[in-house]
């Protein structure tokens, strides 16, 4: 092969372009350079100044933006992290010893400690000193914080009462120890197990103790939880195998109601058969799912001797490989036939597999869930397994038709306990947070512990704001042993102030970078309304106008200045009224929302999608997504505040700062105050829950007509006249009971505390008076709920009662039969 050169053909680089496009039917739009927006922008842009503003040092990374909140990095051991987070905790009880580095925690503390550390807080605090996060191990975290830091035992449930422990003790008494097999040996073993495991009979207490009920009808009634541990001691499997678990009347959130049964059953080895509202729950469906389970026990078959299985595997391998014996060996007698009986393999023992049936949200039933309660009642009557039911509204459950062991009412965990749990969970993941920030987040989520942990799990990330992609946050752990401090503890990566107060409440990209304060204020007001349904432009509540008025009155010495200030305030109020008119009710909340009367009636099939047992109220709000009323109202309110700020003639610094444009920090402060002082309006249902038990006389005979009651009249009459009188009596009974408990503790002989007797004879002997003049324990009996009655007056009334208690303690005796004074009302 040879190369030939010099025969190049000239190539024409010109290409003829033929425009085959059709002729346009319209005129071509031409924009002159004077009218071009892009041209004007390019002309005004100074490229030289822009080039000089960029960093010239290419060896260093560009600093992070000023609006980015960057956490502080620490490389410390878990023991030092405990010292950092200890000042933020309130429920952790520590006893300092001679060495300040070592502390006695929880139950190891002396008896002088007034409180014990909660087991969940104690476990997280101890794990902080020894455990490492997934980032420290250079692994990926496969679990969320909600699952990872869930309670592991019944004692770790964040609850002020003993509901979780009582549930565990109840399940422990229902554990079946053996199952009959049908033969004589098994029957004898079963009988022996029952006799050996029979609990010791308790001596019946005296009738005056208030525990023995003679009437058969009252035997099924449930009393309140006793403070005596002997009353809750396990007494065998003779208890009723049903119970109901529900959240408190405040609709406690955070998963305690649903999580507690799972933790108790996991600790005791139970298997749960759960039926939730996500599936059909008619009578037929329930029978198909758990019908056979309620009539039989689960038997757990233990595995036999592994040597037999090994022999079978060896024979199978011989057959597969073709390694078989000769045919003559089949006819020869077996020499080991006599010894085969002695080496016979024993069968695997049978053991009872503990199980229960969990019914979630039994108050959420639909039209298709027919015969739910009828089938469930029949199953519970003949079931061999315990039932646990959860609900949100106890009024939707037919308690009269159910034979229950108990009703456990769960409520929100104590605020300090929940916040400490969140702080320690974040610390175990390497994030040291301020208590004020976590407390504000917890209140913004309506005291929902699960939602708070999910929010912290989202924001708390390692190496936030690192310009090198997180390389500055890595800690070298090779060679082995180089990652230990002077005390021999493993060093871990800690991020301080990863989450700060108000993060996630307001979008910070537009508010922090906006140069115009009025534009930034309008953006903050819009976000507060769209995200939190809070009218930030209600300056009478968000701004302290009273302080501004006091400053103007103090600084205005001449009448003309006061007249100008009054005219400015009049203009401010007029503009605020105009803003309310422009909004056309779009900024209304709760009972102030505008309803849409033009919507058609809901079809019958659609009504079946709503919960049975509640009245369906067709009150849909009027949609106002495309109307500019909200934006116009917010803009007018912002301009009104700015106008008052300019017309303010006072040079005082306080008043000037009060009327300044709304910035992000002030908006976060106003939002925090709204979460903390959120008040729920009192409705007629609240009054019904409180006073309906005393609306009808208990001794009234049954009749075909309803007796007239004052509680059936107007709400104004009940709130102003009847409710204060009832609250006064209830509060007097509560104060009297506290004084009686104090006397009982003073007269006790020491030792184990016993339950105080509640008869009038016992009270008269305790107080040293006559029985006929001794006031009974409760004026209205046990039918009235004290918490519901107190709720009808709010928190301010209770504080007022606490303020006047010292004054009345010296005026009235505890055995006085008279009703409380009018000052209690």
Automatic annotation (TrEMBL):
Bias-annotated ranges (Acidic residues): 214-232
SUPFAM superfamilies: P-loop containing nucleoside triphosphate hydrolases
PANTHER family cross-referenced by the UniProt entry: ATPASE FAMILY AAA DOMAIN-CONTAINING PROTEIN 5, CHROMOSOME TRANSMISSION FIDELITY FACTOR 18
InterPro entries in alphabetical order: P-loop_NTPase
Gene Ontology cellular-component annotations: nucleus
Residue ranges of the region described as Disordered: 97-116, 180-262, 804-825
Chain intervals with Low complexity compositional bias: 811-825
The protein, known as: ATPase AAA-type core domain-containing protein
Gene Ontology molecular-function annotations: DNA binding
